[in-house]
Every structure is written in C-alpha cells, then in structure tokens.
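Cross-posted from the bioinformatics board.
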Amino acid sequence: MLEHLELFFKSIFIDNMVFAVFLGMCSYLAVSKKVATAVGLGAAVIFVLGVTVPLNWLLDQYILQEGALSWLGAEYADYDLSFLSFIMFIATIATMVQLVEIVVEKFSPALYNSLGIFLPLIAVNCAILGGSLFMQAREIPSLALAFNYGISSGIGWFLAILAIAAIREKIRYSNVPPPLRGLGITFIITGLMGIGFQSFGGMLTGGDEGADSPVPETVVREAVLPEAEGEAVEVETEKKKEEVVISYNDALNK
Amino acid sequence: MALLTKKDANLIIDPLADNNPITIQVLGICSALAITAELKASVVMALSVIFVMGVGNVVISLMRNIIPSKIRIIVQLVVIAALVIVVDQVLKAFAYELSKTLAVFVGLIITNCIIMGRFEAFALGNGPWRSFLDGIGNALGYGVILIIVGFFRELLGSGTLFGYPVLGDPIGKTGLYSIGYENNGFMILPPAALIVVGIIIWVQRSRNTALIEEN
C-alpha cells in the first residue's frame, strides 16, 4: 500500500511529466490557450496512459524482456526481443487510441464530443510513449503499480496543462514585451513553474525508501556536475547522521 | 546545372531561421529540452533526428500514393519506429555511454512531433528529392536550436564544452575561477532549458518583428 502511495505522489509531483522530463510539451503548448480544451485533453491523457501503461507492462513482461518467452517452452528461454520494444509500444498505443475512440464514440457520445478531436492527437503525444518507456526503464515490478504509474503520471500532466492554461488566460491582460508574446512567455512561465515543482523533490526523501532514490532518473540529473554530486553526497551523509541520531535517541529511550 | 534550384534551396534555408521548427512551428520541444544539459548529447540527438527525418521523409514520400489515408498515422509511426530502432541499436553498439545518457529520449524520437508534422505537411504531397531536402532542412533547424541551448547550458552550468574544461578548473581555482567566477548550477536543472529557449525566441523575434504573435 505504502509503495502505491509513494509512487502515486512521486509521479504527480516529483517526476512530473511536464516539469521534470518535458514530455508531451507539443500538445502542452499548442492546446493550452483555453482552460476548457486543456481539461478535455488532460482527461484524455489520463485515460489513455491508464490503459496503455499496464498493457505495455504485460507486453514487456511476457514478450519483450530477456527470457520473457520462457512461458512458451524451454527452447524459447534465451530470446531477447527488447530491441523491438519501441515498435511494439507505439503499435499498442496507436491501436488502443483507435479502439478507445471507437468505444467512446459508441457508448458515450457526449464524452466523445468533448474529447473527439484530441483522441487522435494523443497517439503522437510523447507523454504516452514516454510513460511506457519510463515504466520499462524503471522496471516497475507489478501490474497494479504499472496501472498506478500510468494514472498518476497522467494526473501530473493534467495538473500541468490546467495550470498553464489558467495562467495563459490571465496573461492576455498583461503587458508582455511584444517579442515574448505567445510562445516566448509561455516557455518562461513553464520554466518558473518547473523551478517551483523542483521543490517537491524533497517531499519523499524523509522516508526510508525515499532515501535510496531521492531523485528521479532523468537524463539531466544523471549529468549532474561533480560539485552538485558532492552536495548530494553531503545531503545523504546528513540524512545518515539523522538516522544515527534517531537510533541513538531510541537507544536512550530503551 | 545547379544541384539545387532556388526553390529547393529555400526548403533547407527556411527552417533554419524564419520557419524554425522549434521556435516558430512549436514542434519537437520535448527532446529539445530534456537532453540539452550537455553539448555532446545535443549533437548526437541532432544527428539522429537528421538521419531519421531525411530517410523517413523519402520513404513516406515514395509510399505516399499507396498509403490509405485512414491508417496513415499508423504507417508513419511504423516507419519512424523502424528507423529509430536502427539509430538506437547503432548508438548502443558504438557509443554505449552516450546511449545511457540519452536513455528513453532516443525512443521518444518516434513521437517527436517534427517528424510526424513534416510527414503530414510535406512528404505526403511532394516527391522524394524535395521531401528529402525538406526533412534535412527541418532537422537542421531543430539541431541548430539544440546545439545553441546545449552550448549555453554546458558552458554556463559546468564550464565545459564537450566535457573539456574551457573556463579553467573550478577546484584548483585557475582561469576564470581564480577571479571569483562560479558555475551556475541552475543551468543544469531541467527548467533552465525552458528559459534558455524562451530567451532564444525573444532574441529571434526582436530581430524579426514580423514573427511577433498576437497576445
């Protein structure tokens, strides 16, 4: 249960699809002029991520991983099809989006009308493929967690596009320097929001499990500088000191 | 006979500045921002996209008359995915460390909207040679921004270029560091990329006022 909760908050706030790893930026910038359309697209992204991440998890576990084919028989146990994962994942996503579109159109015309134009767009939203690829890269251990990861990173994306759409609606009334109008100021606002979201990074480091992997495995952070690494090490040592202190207190109490 | 007519040459030159895929068409932002903390990664990413776009545009252009329009998105995705798998395998074979740094972002070239966007907008309606030029042009426009962003982020953030220290040694306090200069660690963080791109857009649009948008 705790791991579910942790993954949930981590995917929404710390590893936020938009602010931490820049996924789905194209539609994030293109469809964020009005709050109403942003909500529609955000809802569709949550839905599609919730469907495709668990599906791709199953594909990864039972077809693509090294040795995953062993359920077919011992002679298949050495196959490693992981180089096919891009094409399998994108095929699943494209098919699912098509399927979801058909099903929604049939059973809920109202929802279809509000999501309609966005559904086909979603197939090429990098947040969707990114969700599956990160799921594979982080080796998420169970189907339930994969589902959780899909839904929660969708919610993170939803929050981001909702926030920027609201800000863009308001910013129309302010006097932005002409060359920055439109795209430029949106980039800079997103950057500032990203800085804000960075502060959530400390949210889960208080716990025991959080301390093992305090930062998301984004590329950018892997490229952190020596001195920044030094800081990270310092933080970790501080944490260790805290742990030592706690155990010392515990010992005293006993 | 010139190799490129004027019209063909414009296909390459336009996307480099006035019709840049990132700053004007707003395509392919995701990867542009995520991997630009180092110049080396930016260059490799730019080369990969140039390869995928050049070849992909030609393939789609050759097939444009036999793809049923209803399933064209899936066909396009399959073509891109196949090319990206090639790039990924080549990187893993010859530059393993780098492919670790780029991680999932090589895979995300598949959903890079520049590629889909140019397939839809250009390759489906033009012959192979012009599509090839258009692909190369747009990929170069994308690469230029990537390299500019990567250059500034690596130079200001870690004082190196391609991993070589150019501003002196921050620990031994030589070069610029001897007079009290410090690296700006903020440039390494993800949000810095957005702000750098924002500034590039600002500079570009103040030089060419025709590009300014309505508020």
